[in-house]
Design a protein that fits this description.
Structural class: alpha/beta
CATH class of one domain: Alpha Beta
Number of helices: 14
Largest sheet: 4 strands, parallel
CATH topology of one domain: Rossmann fold
Shape: globular
Radius of gyration: 20 Å
Helix content: 40-55%
Order of helices and strands: HHEHEHEHEHHHHEHEHHEHEH
Number of strands: 8
C-alpha cells in the first residue's frame, strides 16, 4: 500500500469512530482484557506485560454529541473531560475492562471518581505521580506506586507480571517510540515531505492497537515517506505547544498548515512519546520505568518539575528546530495550559520570538476564525 493510501485509510478510521477499531480487535481476541489510558501519560508497559491491551482514551472528538455528561460537570470544564464521560455513558467504552487516570488537573482527578461511582464493573485505577522530583525519595515512591498498580493489573489479568514479561514490553515500546522519534525527525528536517496531520494520524492510530501492529505500520510509513521529495512551500516554520491533553480536531491541524505554517514540533499525544531515549530493560524493570520518568521523560505542563523553568524547554525547542515562531494551541478552559501561557508569553517576548495564542475545543466544527488568525500572523511575519 502506498503512503498516501495508508494515511487515508487511518484518517478515515479516526474521522469516523476510532474506538470501534478497538471493539473489533477485542471481538477477534476474546478473553484479552483492555485497559483505557487517559492522557497524558500512563506506564503502558505494566498493562502490556500482563497480557492486556493499553488503549488511549483521548476524548470523543467532534462527532460525539454531549447529551449526558453536561449534567455531571460544570459548564466551564474542558471538552475532553465531558466527552470521555459521555463515551462511557452511551456505551462507546463497553469494550474496556479497566481505565486509569492521573492528576492532569482538578477535573481529570475528579473524573476518576465519577467513573468509579457510575461504572462499577470497570476497574478504575489512579496513578499518584510524584510531585516533588527533587526529593531523594522520589524513585522509591514512584517504584512503589508502579508496583501497587501492577498488583491491580495482575488481579484484572488473572496472572502475575513477571520481570521478563515487563522487560519484553519495555523493549517493544522502546522500538515504537524510536520509530515515532524518526517520524518527528523527518518532519522537523523536511516538513514539506511529511505534514503535521500525517504524522498525527500515524501516531494517533497507534493508541488504538497493540504496539507490535503499530510498529509494522510505522516501518511501512517511514519507508514511503523517505521516498518523497517535495518542494518546500513559502511557509513560516513554527513550534506548536499547549495541546498536551485534549486533542484538536484533524481539520484544525490541517487548517493551521494550510494557513501558511510548517509545524516542526508539537506536544500532541505525549503519552505515547514520553521518553526521548530508550528505557533500560535490564535490571529491575519497574525501577527503570520510575527512573526514566524522573530523569529522561519529556517536559510537560502536567509534570511538576522545578529543576527547569517552565519556559526553558520551549525556548530550547524553538532554537533546536530553527523555528521562527510559536503557536500556542490550548484547549478552552484548560487551566494548566493557561497557567503555562502566562510564563511562555513573558519568556517568548524577552527572547524576541513571535507567537500566536489560539484556543480550541475538540468538539468544534467551524475553523474559519482560527485559520484567519493564523493567516494574518503568517502574513505579518512574511511581509513585515
Amino acid at each position: 500500500m502506498g503512503i498516501d493510501s495508508l494515511i487515508a485509510r487511518y484518517r478515515e478510521i479516526l474521522d469516523e469512530s476510532p474506538l470501534d477499531q478497538v471493539a473489533e480487535w477485542k471481538a477477534k481476541h476474546p478473553g484479552t482484557k483492555v485497559v483505557g489510558c487517559y492522557p497524558v501519560y500512563s506506564p503502558v508497559e505494566l498493562i502490556h506485560a500482563a497480557g492486556m491491551l493499553p488503549v488511549g482514551i483521548v476524548g470523543g472528538g467532534n462527532r460525539l454529541e454531549i447529551a449526558h455528561a453536561d449534567s455531571r460537570f460544570q459548564s466551564f470544564v474542558c471538552s475532553i473531560v465531558k466527552s470521555t464521560l459521555e463515551l462511557a455513558m452511551v456505551d462507546k467504552l463497553a469494550f474496556l475492562d479497566g481505565i486509569v487516570f492521573h492528576s492532569i488537573c482538578d477535573p481529570a482527578r475528579n473524573l476518576g471518581s465519577v467513573y468509579k461511582r457510575n461504572f462499577p464493573r470497570l476497574m478504575v485505577e489512579y496513578i499518584h505521580f510524584a510531585q516533588n522530583l527533587t526529593s531523594p525519595h522520589t524513585i522509591d515512591y514512584l517504584t512503589a506506586e508502579y508496583r501497587r498498580l501492577m498488583t491491580s493489573y495482575e488481579q484484572l489479568a488473572g496472572k502475575p507480571i513477571t520481570d521478563d514479561a515487563l522487560r519484553q514490553s519495555i523493549r517493544i515500546y522502546n522500538e515504537q517510540r524510536q520509530l515515532l522519534r524518526e517520524l518527528y525527525a523527518i518532519r522537523a528536517e523536511k516538513p514539506q515531505n511529511l505534514s503535521t496531520l500525517e504524522s498525527y494520524i500515524l501516531t494517533r492510530i497507534g493508541t488504538l492497537m497493540p504496539p507490535d501492529e503499530h510498529i509494522a505500520i510505522l516501518k511501512e510509513a517511514l519507508a514511503g515517506i523517505r521516498q518523497r521529495d517535495e518542494r518546500p512551500k513559502d511557509r513560516i516554520k513554527v513550534v506548536l505547544e499547549g495541546s498536551f491533553c485534549e486533542q484538536p480536531p484533524l481539520e484544525l491541524i490541517e487548517g493551521l498548515e494550510a494557513a501558511g505554517c510548517y509545524i516542526l514540533d508539537d506536544d500532541f499525544l505525549l503519552g505515547w512519546r514520553w521518553f526521548p531515549a530508550d528505557v533500560p530493560a535490564e535490571g529491575d524493570p519497574v525501577r527503570n520505568l520510575a527512573e526514566s520518568y524522573l530523569h529522561q521523560s519529556v517536559y510537560s505542563g502536567v509534570k511538576h518539575d522545578t529543576r527547569e523553568r517552565k519556559s526553558k524547554h520551549l525556548i530550547d525547542k524553538v532554537k533546536e528546530t530553527g523555528a521562527a515562531a510559536v503557536l500556542i494551541l490550548a484547549a478552552k478552559f484548560c487551566e494548566p495550559a493557561l497557567f503555562d501561557y502566562a510564563l511562555y508569553r513573558q519568556a517568548l517576548e524577552k527572547a524576541g520570538i513571535p507567537h500566536l495564542y489560539l484556543e480550541f475545543e475538540e468538539k468544534m466544527w467551524i475553523f474559519d476564525k482560527a485559520r484567519t488568525e493564523v493567516e494574518t500572523f503568517v502574513e505579518s511575519m512574511l511581509f513585515d
